[in-house]
Amino acid sequence: VMTLLFGGYDTTSITLSYALYLLATHPEIRNECLKEIDTVFPKSTNDEQLEDVFVLDDPALQLPYTQAVVLETLRLYPPAPMTFRTLEKPMELDGKHFPENTSVTVPIWSIQRDARNFPRPLEMNPRRWIRHRRNNCVDGESKWEERPLRDEEEKEDVVGEDTIPCANRDAFCVFAAGARNCVGRKLAMQEAVTLLAILVQKLKFELVDEGYEVKPKLSSVVQQPHDGLPMIISAR
């Protein structure tokens, strides 16, 4: 429990900071995100109802577009830009032999910004992760749904829109993978999507300077904005 609570608060706050920055610099994405949030969780004028209104059991089903914003943020700005492993047994990789007990660095930042894994890697595009819902949605449901692992966009879904290949889940390693992956992955996503939805619906975040560009810096094992990411916050 202590690992879940204290190991995740710093990385979640870093993720939310970058997500708000990306939404401020991509107003069309922010508007689509806000539209989904207001549809699924209509804005309440009573702050006491806040806890009852935002109950996310499954962000991928309830707020898929908002979750895609979080995933794309994690892809572009992973809080931990690298991780390390020690080989428990020898292995062959790309024609090279690595003996047991070899220390291996996994460059998460570089992997997730590699065009071979994510075409147009520096572009913020939630549609890597979602697509228009194939079945008709009812009132109170998002018009978006999570893209299948091997999804190919159908023509009728992209008329007049730019297309982008489905996200490569195998190259998305912000939570690591295998038996030693992040134990708090599900909690982290529920927490980040819920908090982002509340912040975006209740407040408006704007850059202090239109020409501002975030500059990540390494701080211990995580990276974060070098200047705390100053923003103008106002009630929506």
Task: Supply the key terms.
7 helices; globular; 236 residues; two-stranded antiparallel sheet; alpha+beta; two-stranded antiparallel ribbon; 35% helix
User: What's the count of strands?
Assistant: 10
What's the order of the H and E elements? HHHHHEEEEHEEHEEEE
Strand portion: 15-25%
Structural Rg:
19 Å
**Percentage of residues assigned to helices:** 25-40%
Q: In DSSP terms, counting alpha (H) and pi (I) runs of 4 or more, how many helices?
A: 7
Describe the biggest sheet? Answer: 2 strands, antiparallel
| pLDDT < 50 runs, ≥5 residues | 154-160
Q: What's the rounded overall pLDDT mean?
A: 87
Side-by-side strand order of the widest sheet: 1-4
User: What general outline do the C-alpha atoms trace?
Assistant: globular
From the N-terminal CA to the C-terminal CA, the straight-line distance is 35 Å
Question: Would you tell me the structural class of the helices and strands?
Answer: alpha+beta
